[in-house]
Specification:
By secondary structure, this protein is an alpha/beta fold. It has helices at about 35-45, 80, 105-110, 175-195, 210-220, 240-255; strands at about 1-5, 25-30, 30, 50-55, 65-70, 95, 100, 115-120, 140-145, 150-155, 165-175, 225-230, 235. β2 and β3 form a beta hairpin. Strands 1, 4, 5, 6, 8, 9, 10, 11 and 12 form a nine-stranded mixed beta sheet that branches. Strands 2-3 form a two-stranded antiparallel ribbon. The chain has a two-stranded antiparallel ribbon with strand order 7-13.
Amino acid sequence: MKAIIIAAGRGNRMNDLTANSPKCLLEINGKTIIQTQIDHLRSLGISNISVVKGYLQEKICFPGLTYYLNDNYRQNNILESLFYAEEELCDDVIILYSDIIFEKRVVEKLLGSRHEISIVTDVKWTLNYVDRHDHPLEEAEKVIFDERFQVQKIGKNLKSYEGDVQGEFIGMMKLSGSGSDTMREYYHSCKQKYSKGPFQRASSFQLAYLTDLMQEMIDNSVIVHCIPIENGWREIDTVEDFTKAKFFLKTQKVKNMS
């Protein structure tokens, strides 16, 4: 098992907090976001960890990791960023955004999946938007799945389907070896097919999200399986999120000690 952390962007909605530091290096209760992620992964036996970096890339420097540089991060998005580490997309691999904090049990549950493509989905997702003012609910990467926990729709702005939304993709997924092969194949075929014009909900392939590629795969009968959780994580997209995350980690620390 290996892991890829996507950490190329600045996080423009963090204002001055990311003026001199990548978002993943912000400290929450004495530890950076990415160090917390690395610690959880290593505690579960995942030591082969790669990081895709871009903004202020020289500041992300941890021993024992493999690094890939997205030197075009200002003009592309998460999907393109991931594929700077394409050579790591083989065998079993966990992919995660660098701006999420989570309990170790979230990764443990994902590791238990035997499906080719698995995504962690928070089915209590709306609770994270209570008193959350700076990150619109519309921007959540929403998920609609069937009774077999197979994804039917995924992505931002599922406005016509909002009444049916069952969860939010938290920015963490697992691929088996064959799942990695499938994702690579679709990425390259779509990059060629959609070289001009929009791609799924993105204005261009270059600006696509990971969920746009997943939706394209689902539309072509590829099975993407949900791993449901009930909270246990937080996204850090705004200054408000950063403040709330500090309280979340303190609460989890107390709970784990009790």
